[in-house]
Amino acid sequence: SAVISQKPSRDICQRGTSLTIQCQVDSQVTMMFWYRQQPGQSLTLIATANQGSEATYESGFVIDKFPISRPNLTFSTLTVSNMSPEDSSIYLCSTYGTGSYEQYFGPGTRLTVT
Amino acid sequence: GNSVTQMEGPVTLSEEAFLTINCTYTATGYPSLFWYVQYPGEGLQLLLKATKADDKGSNKGFEATYRKETTSFHLEKGSVQVSDSAVYFCALRLIQGAQKLVFGQGTRLTINP
Q1: Is the pLDDT of residue B112 over 90?
Q2: Each residue's pLDDT tens digit, B34-56
Q3: Which residue of A19, B11, B22, B40 has the fewest CB atoms within a 10 Å radius of its CB?
Q4: CB contact, 8 Å: A75 with chain B?
Q5: Are A75 and A46 spatial neighbours (Cβ–Cβ below 8 Å)?
Q6: Can you give the C-alpha Rg of chain B in angstroms?
Q7: Closest CB from A41, A42, A92 relative to B43
Q8: CA B52 from chain center: how many Å?
Q9: How far apart are CA B58 and CA B43, in angstroms?
């Protein structure tokens, strides 16, 4: 299994500012994923982050808006830049358990943009 | 492309009722299938999984069988409890390629005492 923690758990931010979300995994993992869950919606993959390479973004998401860092095998950050109310969502970090098909999720960061 | 379709919600049942949440999928390859649950105010938890045809995943009284012929992975429970109230997500992941999870739209389940 993999135990994932995220900081902050929630935040209320003003329009036009940026927020960096941290994700920490209790073991070394190759792939980390960032998802967005808009209110009442399903999860949408933002990007996949592998250590030592640029993140791969899904259609509709761009690096300027959602820059990602992956400095080592246990940690990643997602920044939500120049926020607008439409960015109000839950942002979740995810990875695979070691040697497992199972994907585990962090508790999420609930972001509200006013 | 790859996609997952779940039955529309919300679903409201009485305690001890039988539950079925339908899930069908479309995949370009041979996927693994998952059910995730999200309890109120909490993150996503893996409920059960199946990695090949005819596999049955089970956990906490929930079951789902991987049906390749009907491309389905319906979630069932014989007797639901109030504590089962949550949002349930069906998902697939291809073994090859990007290996990312593709989620259905989620089904909100409410169990009344």
Answers
A1: yes
A2: 999 999 878 889 999 999 999 99
A3: B40
A4: no
A5: no
A6: 14
A7: A92
A8: 15
A9: 20
